[in-house]
């Protein structure tokens, strides 16, 4: 039986050469993300912005969008976002957080139900008051910071300082680009998105750690080898595994994107993008960053210790 | 060598079998489980067969999630709030000590202030206040902090202020009471197995699965249902409210503004029957403080009418015939057993001690939940098929081993979730799909290492040994980083997101059993069976 071989054996590709393209590319994308973040911003969901999200489905199977727009605008709750989705009359309606504190949000749901329940099935209602949304922003931010710090500490204990630094560069890069993906696609940013980002943090490190484990092993084996060459060997050796895992994970996520349903679609899309970003950054960002961080020092230190 | 101790072999297989057995009920729905239990032969003891399926989150089974918050401003400064109660207590002391005030009782943000007309009374009143009003937090004689600070201002006024501990303690107790009230009210609504729990200091989380009409829940919870006992005003009283009444043809009734006892002090209310007429009535019972206040008021007010006020409506205004000092009372009226029952329930549960505000609502309709389950199942299946085919195509027989391990892996996650009574949510399903992709990562790491070792010229057995051994450190490293992210997610997230974290953490744990130990056993068995000449990939 002939088996599938995605990545050929014994490759000797000069991956570190890619950094001359990947570094400027990532720099541009990161800066673009930061600029977008402060100009366009994320498409925050009700979790973080407060307000009310209602998802309805027309009993008839066809939603009258124009009529829905006028009806909901006439409620007098300010600007309303009305969007169709799916192909059986699904509509999502987003109301802004109403002035007047927690109690004021309840009225929105009541009004919408009274006006639309006759023709539409209420599939989902999410109403978050200003206080809770504020707290969710706080805990989401804390979560990401704690995750980065915890992972940093793990790397600190488990790896040499230079390797840990390289991994952190890669992880931050992946977080930034994922946020960029959120902004370009306008996928809603909510509590589940925080879950996606934290998972991507985990995956990003997973990818980097596999390469760096090999780097460390090789450092012990060949003491006098130039850093660039050492890193090239590390990547070439782990490449078939990197490709395999990227493919199995992407395939699973693709199944989720295609068949997982509307409610999980955004999450699946972001995760899929995240896996691609992480695979790219492990090869083209975090590993070559070691050239600049200066892996040589560590090798020489090792030698010095060995000589002493 | 590829050898296992018998102990390790047995324990691994046992763990896997038990795990899969526990996951089994989750593959069927309620009816399927029942049919299965009935189809069992009689000699199989039923306790041996696991029947507990994984709990589905509200986003999958449909239902309402509502976060309520105690309105602490109302609790402290409301009409029958803490400050108002303190004022009543102080007024009672002023009356019983028969001292004159300069300018009445003044209300402060968190307490009251009085200024005595005669400074000669100061010591006596202060002593009386100190003896009767402040209470230890955490029970009498506990010696803990007091709930109220009694101080004398430089100008000679007496101030009583609730301490931070006093207010927090009260909020804590009120939340406890409110949880009971909410529980009774939802049972009153007749919905199934609501989950009600305290969240933080001043919040209550209410989750009602399968609730079709959240509006009903809102209505039941939205009722303030404040119960108060107040005197019906006499001619010439000025401090009065005109309240609509259920008796006397709905005519508004003048009622004293002073509250004798509020629902907070009511411990119980039941339906009773009059011994002479056998007509249904409603009995009620106060706690010690309520009994004392009620006793005092009814002693002073024999012959007066007592208004029982629920939600600012007079539901009954019986005449006080004799002082009621024991803390027990009876409301009579033209009640049927049913209406008496309703009133008793309202009184029992109606004593919501403070206003509750809805700060978060999430409702998923049953249609969306069902669709999500279907979509989740489909995605899981498709992902599994993709990965299984891909692994087999790449690694042949070794891929098959990895695939068996993968299926066991998913089974173990489900089994563990049933045992831990963890909740499966939509992001949780996404987590399962994702672990299908990442679980084989460990196998890939091992297999690629085996290949490498083999190509470097080792024997088959040595390559397999070295592959497992060398890849193991990397597997631990890569899974640890994932575990850190997942753990933080678990502590941070709530509801659906937490479901994702649970799946992910369990997935990492079971990978070690399946991808490492189980695959290794299968490869060892294969090796001794086939005696291959080369690595088959």
TrEMBL record, chain A:
<dbReference type="InterPro" id="IPR005665">
    <property type="entry name" value="SecF_bac"/>
</dbReference>
<dbReference type="Pfam" id="PF07549">
    <property type="entry name" value="Sec_GG"/>
</dbReference>
<protein>
    <recommendedName>
        <fullName>Protein-export membrane protein SecF</fullName>
    </recommendedName>
</protein>
<feature type="transmembrane region" description="Helical">
    <location>
        <begin position="136"/>
        <end position="156"/>
    </location>
</feature>
<dbReference type="InterPro" id="IPR022646">
    <property type="entry name" value="SecD/SecF_CS"/>
</dbReference>
<keyword id="KW-0472">Membrane</keyword>
<keyword id="KW-1133">Transmembrane helix</keyword>
<dbReference type="Pfam" id="PF02355">
    <property type="entry name" value="SecD_SecF_C"/>
</dbReference>
<keyword id="KW-0812">Transmembrane</keyword>
<dbReference type="InterPro" id="IPR022813">
    <property type="entry name" value="SecD/SecF_arch_bac"/>
</dbReference>
<keyword id="KW-0653">Protein transport</keyword>
<dbReference type="InterPro" id="IPR022645">
    <property type="entry name" value="SecD/SecF_bac"/>
</dbReference>
<feature type="domain" description="Protein export membrane protein SecD/SecF C-terminal">
    <location>
        <begin position="111"/>
        <end position="294"/>
    </location>
</feature>
<feature type="transmembrane region" description="Helical">
    <location>
        <begin position="267"/>
        <end position="293"/>
    </location>
</feature>
<keyword id="KW-0813">Transport</keyword>
<dbReference type="InterPro" id="IPR048634">
    <property type="entry name" value="SecD_SecF_C"/>
</dbReference>
<comment type="similarity">
    <text>Belongs to the SecD/SecF family. SecF subfamily.</text>
</comment>
<feature type="transmembrane region" description="Helical">
    <location>
        <begin position="243"/>
        <end position="261"/>
    </location>
</feature>
<feature type="transmembrane region" description="Helical">
    <location>
        <begin position="191"/>
        <end position="212"/>
    </location>
</feature>
<comment type="function">
    <text>Part of the Sec protein translocase complex. Interacts with the SecYEG preprotein conducting channel. SecDF uses the proton motive force (PMF) to complete protein translocation after the ATP-dependent function of SecA.</text>
</comment>
<dbReference type="InterPro" id="IPR055344">
    <property type="entry name" value="SecD_SecF_C_bact"/>
</dbReference>
<feature type="transmembrane region" description="Helical">
    <location>
        <begin position="163"/>
        <end position="185"/>
    </location>
</feature>
Automatic annotation (TrEMBL), chain B:
<dbReference type="InterPro" id="IPR048631">
    <property type="entry name" value="SecD_1st"/>
</dbReference>
<feature type="domain" description="Protein export membrane protein SecD/SecF C-terminal">
    <location>
        <begin position="355"/>
        <end position="526"/>
    </location>
</feature>
<dbReference type="InterPro" id="IPR005791">
    <property type="entry name" value="SecD"/>
</dbReference>
<feature type="transmembrane region" description="Helical">
    <location>
        <begin position="499"/>
        <end position="523"/>
    </location>
</feature>
<feature type="transmembrane region" description="Helical">
    <location>
        <begin position="379"/>
        <end position="397"/>
    </location>
</feature>
<dbReference type="InterPro" id="IPR055344">
    <property type="entry name" value="SecD_SecF_C_bact"/>
</dbReference>
<protein>
    <recommendedName>
        <fullName>Protein translocase subunit SecD</fullName>
    </recommendedName>
</protein>
<keyword id="KW-1003">Cell membrane</keyword>
<keyword id="KW-1133">Transmembrane helix</keyword>
<comment type="subunit">
    <text>Forms a complex with SecF. Part of the essential Sec protein translocation apparatus which comprises SecA, SecYEG and auxiliary proteins SecDF-YajC and YidC.</text>
</comment>
<dbReference type="InterPro" id="IPR001036">
    <property type="entry name" value="Acrflvin-R"/>
</dbReference>
<keyword id="KW-0813">Transport</keyword>
<feature type="domain" description="Protein translocase subunit SecDF P1">
    <location>
        <begin position="176"/>
        <end position="232"/>
    </location>
</feature>
<keyword id="KW-0812">Transmembrane</keyword>
<dbReference type="Pfam" id="PF22599">
    <property type="entry name" value="SecDF_P1_head"/>
</dbReference>
<keyword id="KW-0811">Translocation</keyword>
<dbReference type="Pfam" id="PF02355">
    <property type="entry name" value="SecD_SecF_C"/>
</dbReference>
<comment type="similarity">
    <text>Belongs to the SecD/SecF family. SecD subfamily.</text>
</comment>
<feature type="domain" description="SecDF P1 head subdomain">
    <location>
        <begin position="243"/>
        <end position="354"/>
    </location>
</feature>
<dbReference type="InterPro" id="IPR054384">
    <property type="entry name" value="SecDF_P1_head"/>
</dbReference>
<dbReference type="InterPro" id="IPR048634">
    <property type="entry name" value="SecD_SecF_C"/>
</dbReference>
<keyword id="KW-0472">Membrane</keyword>
């Amino acid at each position: 039986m002939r088996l599938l071989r995605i990545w050929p054996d014994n490759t000797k590709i000069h991956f570190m050469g890619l950094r001359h393209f990947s570094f400027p590319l990532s720099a541009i994308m990161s800066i673009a993300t930061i600029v977008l973040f402060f100009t366009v911003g994320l498409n925050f969901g009700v979790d973080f912005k407060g307000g009310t999200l209602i998802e309805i489905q027309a009993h008839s199977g066809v939603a009258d969008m124009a009529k829905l727009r006028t009806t909901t605008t006439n409620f007098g709750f300010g600007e309303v976002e009305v969007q169709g989705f799916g192909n059986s009359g699904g509509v999502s309606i987003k109301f802004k957080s109403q002035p007047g504190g927690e109690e004021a949000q309840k009225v929105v749901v009541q009004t919408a139900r009274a006006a639309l329940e006759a023709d539409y099935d209420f599939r989902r209602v999410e109403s978050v008051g200003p206080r809770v949304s504020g707290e969710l922003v706080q805990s989401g931010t804390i979560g990401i910071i704690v995750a980065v710090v915890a992972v940093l500490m793990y790397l600190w204990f488990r790896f040499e300082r230079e390797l840990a630094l390289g991994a952190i560069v890669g992880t931050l890069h992946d977080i930034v680009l994922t946020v960029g993906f959120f902004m370009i696609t306008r996928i809603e940013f909510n509590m589940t998105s925080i879950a996606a980002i934290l998972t991507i943090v985990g995956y990003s490190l997973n990818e980097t750690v596999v390469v760096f484990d090999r780097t460390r092993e090789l450092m012990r084996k060949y003491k006098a080898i130039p850093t660039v060459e050492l890193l090239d060997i590390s990547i070439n050796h782990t490449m078939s595994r990197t490709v395999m895992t990227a493919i199995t994970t992407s395939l699973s996520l693709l199944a989720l994107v295609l068949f997982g349903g509307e409610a999980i679609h955004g999450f699946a899309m972001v995760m899929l993008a995240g896996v691609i970003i992480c695979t790219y950054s492990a090869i083209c960002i975090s590993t070559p960053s070691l050239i600049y961080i200066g892996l040589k020092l560590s090798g020489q230190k090792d030698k010095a210790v060995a000589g002493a | 060598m590829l050898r296992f101790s018998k102990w390790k072999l047995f324990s691994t297989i046992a763990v896997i079998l038990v795990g899969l057995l526990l996951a089994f009920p989750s593959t069927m729905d309620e009816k399927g489980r029942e049919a299965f239990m009935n189809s069992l032969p009689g000699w199989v003891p039923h306790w041996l067969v696991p029947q507990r399926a994984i709990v589905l989150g509200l986003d999958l089974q449909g239902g309402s999630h509502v976060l309520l918050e105690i309105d602490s401003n109302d609790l402290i400064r409301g009409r029958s709030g803490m400050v108002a109660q303190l004022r009543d207590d102080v007024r009672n002391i002023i009356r019983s000590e028969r001292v004159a005030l300069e300018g009445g009782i003044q209300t402060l943000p968190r307490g009251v202030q009085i200024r005595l007309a005669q400074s000669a009374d100061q010591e006596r009143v202060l002593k009386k206040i100190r003896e009767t009003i402040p209470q230890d937090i955490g029970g009498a004689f506990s010696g803990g902090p007091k709930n109220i600070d009694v101080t004398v201002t430089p100008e000679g006024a007496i101030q009583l202020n609730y301490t931070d501990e006093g207010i927090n303690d009260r909020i804590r107790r009120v939340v406890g009471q409110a949880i009971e009230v909410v529980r009774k009210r939802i049972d009153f609504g007749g919905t199934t197995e609501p989950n009600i729990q305290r969240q933080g200091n001043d919040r209550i989380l209410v989750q009602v699965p399968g609730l079709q009409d959240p509006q009903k829940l809102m209505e039941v919870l939205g009722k303030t249902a404040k119960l108060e006992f107040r005197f019906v005003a006499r001619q010439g009283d000025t401090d009065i409210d005109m309240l609509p009444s259920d008796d006397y043809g709905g005519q508004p009734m003048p009622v004293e503004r002073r509250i004798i006892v509020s629902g907070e002090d009511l411990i119980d209310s039941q339906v009773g029957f009059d011994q002479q007429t056998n007509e249904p009535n409603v009995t009620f019972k106060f706690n010690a403080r309520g009994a004392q206040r009620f006793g005092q008021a009814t002693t002073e007010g024999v012959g007066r009418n007592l208004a029982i006020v629920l939600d600012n409506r007079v539901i009954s205004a019986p005449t006080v015939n004799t002082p009621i000092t024991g803390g027990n009372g009876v409301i009579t009226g033209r009640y049927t057993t049913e209406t008496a029952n309703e009133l008793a329930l309202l009184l029992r549960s109606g004593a919501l001690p403070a206003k509750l505000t809805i700060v978060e609502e999430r409702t998923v309709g049953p249609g969306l939940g069902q669709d999500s389950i279907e979509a989740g199942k489909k995605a899981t299946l498709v992902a599994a098929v993709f990965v299984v085919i891909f692994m087999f195509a790449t690694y042949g027989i070794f891929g098959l081993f990895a695939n068996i391990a993968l299926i066991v892996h998913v089974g173990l996650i489900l089994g563990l979730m049933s045992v831990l009574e963890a909740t499966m949510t939509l992001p949780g399903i996404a987590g399962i799909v994702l672990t299908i992709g990442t679980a084989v990562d460990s196998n890939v790491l091992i297999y690629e290492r085996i290949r490498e070792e083999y190509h470097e010229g080792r024997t088959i057995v040595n390559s397999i040994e070295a592959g497992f051994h060398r890849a193991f450190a990397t597997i631990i490293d890569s899974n640890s980083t994932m575990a850190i992210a997942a753990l933080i997610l678990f502590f941070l997230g709530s509801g659906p997101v937490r479901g994702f974290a649970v799946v992910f953490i369990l997935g990492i744990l079971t990978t070690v059993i399946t991808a490492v130990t189980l695959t290794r056993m299968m490869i060892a068995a294969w090796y001794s069976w086939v005696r291959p000449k080369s690595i088959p990939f």
